[in-house]
Design goal:
The chain has 6 helices and 2 strands, in the order ααααββαα. It has about 150 residues and is mainly α. A two-stranded antiparallel sheet has the order 1-2. Strand 1 and strand 2 form a beta hairpin.
């Protein structure tokens, strides 16, 4: 017999399952693109606001990861000319990173490559169902994002 789970617990579990399934699907679609999924995610992050510049420290905080790993990912994107960097005038130890036009073009091409699968996944959904799910997930994302440090332990 399965242990009872609240709807809230199921929502959070299902979000993880959906994320894993989508990651696997996207990896399969982009297999021959030369850009592994983690780099694709980072490139999409930069393309959300192409004019914004980021430090590795800011990226590390945004992705809640370790700095050495982020430094390696950024270096790979820079080596592919998808990111450009310049010295941070406020901190000589840091560099400011920005997506290049080539990076935006690659992101656009890769997202277009995922479009047919995304359309298939949502085939048969009513626009109202998509909007309702979007609103709920945006609300959940916002609460989690705005309360990263406020984790209740008891």
């Amino acid at each position: 017999m399965r242990p009872p789970r609240s709807e809230e617990e199921q929502i959070l579990l299902w979000c993880g399952v959906v994320a894993q399934l989508q990651r696997t699907r996207t990896n399969r679609i982009l297999r021959d693109s030369g850009l592994p999924y983690p780099l694709f995610v980072l490139l999409r992050h930069f393309c959300h606001d192409p004019d914004r510049e980021w430090t590795v420290g800011q990226l590390t905080a945004a992705f809640e990861t370790q700095q050495p790993g982020m430094t390696k990912q950024v270096a790979r994107l820079e080596a592919m000319s998808l990111l450009a960097s310049r010295p941070d005038p406020n901190d000589g130890r840091s560099r400011l990173l920005r997506v290049t036009r080539k990076g935006v073009r690659l992101r656009d091409a890769l997202v277009a490559k995922t479009e047919p699968d995304r359309a298939r996944v949502f085939q048969g959904w009513k626009r109202s169902e998509i909007r309702a799910l979007h609103r709920g997930l945006d609300r959940l994302r916002t609460v989690l994002d705005e309360n990263r440090e406020d984790v209740r332990l008891s």
